[in-house]
């Protein structure tokens, strides 16, 4: 009697090779759907608030590397370790953006470790350093103003300068630089003159840089959020108010009702500006304010 033929359901090569190939095929398909697949990004001020939310979204969108830069060392390390995934490497680098040599070192170490720099999100900033946050014109503390300008203007300029140099030298096409401005960068207020001044400067920097770097295929844009209940904003209210209070108070001044403005909304705008979805967008001040500016008209 002839025995029935044996049916083999195994793949024609070792199973571990089959499973590895299947994993890579699945990952490739997944990465193709991600907006930042294979990109190397730096996020300054990435240890909390808008920076942290953006770093997390960069990782979810397939960035190959996300470098968290901040002066909050413990928080920064926690964020970096928490967003690492099979296709994303994340590290924390201590960087005070007011010190140009530290910004230069941040960019150089990123390129040395990961081969290139595709995205710079210059987000580090402060609202005020004055004991009196009012900072009116008549009572302006110039030393406190210098500190705000050092972080928000000088720091942002250093990030744009050294990121752009790395992109030009590395011949990175499609490089994207995104800065955090504010609705304060196109409006006026009853106080915080130093902060308003600094954010107007950021918008001006972005517009000039976009013109100068366009020939290198580098896009430069900024996001301008209204008040978001980040740790920095809560400190601005003296630490006496919680996020829910800030969101409800801010919501009164927004024409768009039924939704609270949060860091994630701003982070989504940054992802758009960092990705190829905005490949013809440069020199833009993208306002994320729930209609606050329109409500003021």
Structure, briefly:
Belongs to the short-chain dehydrogenases/reductases (SDR) family. The protein is α/β, with parallel strands linked by helices.
Topology:
Layout: H1 15-32, E1 40-44, H2 49-60, E2 65-70, H3 73-83, E3 89-94, H4 100-114, E4 119-122, H5 142-169, E5 176-180, H6 193-213, E6 219-225, H7 231-236, H8 243-251, H9 263-274, E7 285-288, H10 292-296
Parallel strand pairs: 1-2, 1-4, 2-3, 4-5, 5-6, 6-7
Helix pairs in contact: 2-9, 4-5, 5-6
Key descriptive features of the protein:
alpha/beta; SDR_fam; Rossmann fold; 297 residues; 10 helices; NAD(P)-bd_dom_sf; globular; single chain
Structure, explained:
Helix 4 packs parallel to helix 5. The chain has 297 residues and is α/β, with parallel strands linked by helices. The protein is globular and about 50 Å long. It has one domain: Rossmann fold. It starts with 14 loop residues before the first helix and ends with a helix. Strand 1, helix 2 and strand 2 form a beta-alpha-beta unit.
